[in-house]
Amino acid sequence: EDTKDLFFFQLQTVVDRIPRRDMLILMEDMNAKAGSDNSGRERERVMGRNGLGVLNENGELLADFCAVNELTIGGTLFPHRCCHKATWVSPDQ
Predict the structure, then answer these.
(1) Mean local confidence (pLDDT), 11-22
(2) CA distance readout (Å), 66 to 58, 83, 88, 89
(3) CA–CA dist 36, 2 (Å, integer)
(4) Which residue blocks in 1-93 are alpha helix, DSSP H?
(5) Where does the source fall among the domains of life (predicted)?
(6) How far apart are CA 20 and CA 89, in angstroms?
(7) What residue ranges do the domains of the chain occupy?
(8) Burial of 93 (C-beta count, 10 Å sphere; 0-12/13-18/19+)
(9) What are phi and psi of 23, to 5 degrees?
């Protein structure tokens, strides 16, 4: 938990240094499932309905980070085949 908080704190520090007029594209495998339910809070502005599975803890952290920084989880905006939605799937899934 502390490691994740530290990661997002450091990431926020970097993002804060980027001028608002610049386009920010953040690409990272954050072990996050964004899910397909974008209802509630700021989610409708942050993500679409084409995510994978159910929102997990890392997905929640990512969605909150995106909401604060007015970013979008791009992989959730358009439909994709399931095999293209994840970089890795647990063998027990």
Answers:
(1) 96
(2) 12, 24, 22, 24
(3) 27
(4) 2-16, 43-46, 57-69
(5) Eukaryota
(6) 35
(7) 2-84
(8) exposed
(9) -80, 130
What is the C-alpha to C-alpha distance for residues 2 and 25, in angstroms, rounded to an integer?
Answer: 25
pLDDT category, 61, cuts 50, 70, 90? Answer: very high
Residue 16 sits at φ, ψ, to 5 deg, of -60, -25
Give the DSSP letter of residue 54. S
**Which pTM was predicted?**
0.81
Tokens 């920010």 -> residue: 24
Amino acid letter at 37? D
| CB-CB contact of 15 with 69 (8 Å) | yes
